[in-house]
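Lecture notes, part 5. Sequence design as translation. It can be helpful to think of inverse folding as translation between two languages: the language of shapes and the language of residues. The source text, in structure tokens, appears below.
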């Protein structure tokens, strides 16, 4: 089979995730209004917009933290119902929050298996198996990671991100929502997180990247989705725009003339 044929087959596959015409309101106030977005395997979609634009609310619908008033979610072309975070996890959707939700006083293996610990046949914690599994997944993500027996509170910000991501990947996440992953990190730690994201892409994992850091978005994202005042302004290929054009979308709420949007479903239903 030729490379062209393989590429055509890949293009014919449905997106890993589609969120269609999502509405969310709180007390009559629209937090998300008629938003459509999609994500393919091995792709990073940067989700940007000002404070209160609706970015986190939209992603919390996908993660099961919020329930949409209306709209549809499809995973690999099949409609799904996500009522809570357990439903999302069962579909391979994991969220890496800015706070990371790690237990600071225990080590990396204990955090990877937090709430899902492995037990021996004597009904005691199987520390050896959990450390081996953690070393295996971390070997894929961050081969230089060494702090397997160190309490995570003593790890750097980049290493802590590694632990949080390893926890998601070990339990077969296919879709990651990353909320401000480089916030409050120094240059070296930011570079480490960028390397982690690039490795996840190579493994075919789809990533929604929520970020206020436009340079991170341009460095990591394949496409950029812009929201303003609860609505989706548009999703564009990174290579079709420059930073000034994306900032204009964030501030002005319109797609610059001549810049194509990439979500075919949205184009057909505007």
């Amino acid at each position: 089979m030729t490379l062209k044929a393989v590429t055509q087959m890949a293009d014919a596959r449905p997106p890993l995730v589609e969120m269609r015409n999502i509405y969310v309101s709180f007390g009559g106030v629209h937090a998300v209004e008629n938003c459509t977005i999609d994500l393919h395997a091995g792709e990073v979609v940067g989700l940007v917009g000002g404070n209160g634009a609706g970015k986190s609310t939209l992603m919390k619908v996908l993660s099961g933290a919020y329930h949409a008033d209306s709209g549809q979610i499809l995973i690999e072309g099949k409609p799904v119902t996500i009522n809570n975070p357990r439903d999302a996890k069962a579909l391979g959707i994991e969220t890496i929050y800015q706070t990371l939700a790690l237990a600071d006083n225990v080590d990396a293996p204990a955090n990877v298996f937090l709430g899902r610990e492995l037990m021996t046949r004597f009904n005691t914690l199987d520390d050896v198996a959990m450390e081996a599994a953690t070393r295996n997944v971390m070997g894929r993500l961050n081969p230089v990671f060494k702090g397997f027996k160190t309490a995570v509170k003593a790890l750097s910000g980049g290493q802590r991100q590694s632990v949080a991501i390893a926890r998601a990947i070990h339990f077969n996440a296919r879709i990651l929502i990353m909320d401000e992953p480089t916030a409050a990190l120094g240059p070296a730690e930011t570079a480490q997180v960028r390397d982690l994201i690039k490795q996840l892409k190579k493994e075919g994992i789809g990533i929604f990247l929520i970020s206020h850091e436009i340079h991170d978005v341009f460095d990591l994202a394949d496409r950029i989705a812009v929201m303003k005042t609860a609505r989706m302004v548009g999703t564009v290929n990174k290579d079709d725009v420059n930073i000034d054009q994306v900032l204009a979308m964030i501030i002005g709420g319109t797609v610059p003339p001549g810049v194509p949007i990439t979500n075919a479903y949205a184009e057909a239903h505007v």
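The translated text above is only one of many valid answers, since several sequences can fold into similar shapes. The longest strand covers residues 29-39.
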